[in-house]
Amino acid sequence: MTSHAGGARPNSAAPAARKGGFSARNGWLLFAGFLMVFGGLMMLFSGISAIAKDDVFITTPHYAYEFDLTSWGWIHLVLGIVILLAGLAVIRGAVWARIVGLALAGLSMVASFMWLPYTPFWALVLLAIDGLIVWALCTAPGLTGD
């Protein structure tokens, strides 16, 4: 018969970690989910501003990926809403939302890159947020049975 120091058994997990409570295992998922909610809200607000033809946007002549500002506004509005909803699903722990979140973060990176001539600083901020989302979703354990 072997004894364990302190009475703890090896390989025993805390009840909160087993029942889906906050733990180090899902901390990265919460981080990614909150970044998705934040990034989705910011895309939504920039989309609303572009649809309203706000004066904060600049236009660069002869940009290779030039679109109408209202079209970009609708793209950002729809993408922002979908990212926001997927972020809430990631926070709730839905496995499908991690896959969808990766795809949406990639689409958001492309949209933010093409948004560069209108709001250069803000597009770079959204690119960085999307990069963090991809990193957090890919490094969080549990998708492959970790």
Please write out the topology.
Blueprint (H helix, E strand, L loop, with lengths): L14 H4 L5 H28 L17 H24 L2 H20 L5 H20 L7
Characterise this structure.
It is a single chain. The chain has 146 residues and is mostly helical. The protein contains 5 helices and no strands. The longest helix has 28 residues, at 24-51. The chain is elongated, with a radius of gyration of 20 Å.
Search tags:
single chain; 146 residues; mainly alpha; 5 helices; 0% strand; elongated
Total strands: 0
Q: What is the radius of gyration?
A: 20 Å
| Amino- and carboxy-terminal Cα gap | 31 Å
Element pattern in H and E: HHHHH
Contiguous low-pLDDT stretches (5 residues minimum) are: 12-19
What's the story with the biggest beta sheet?
none
* Overall morphology: elongated
Quick structural gist:
This protein has 146 residues and is mainly alpha-helical. Helix content is 66%, strand content 0%.
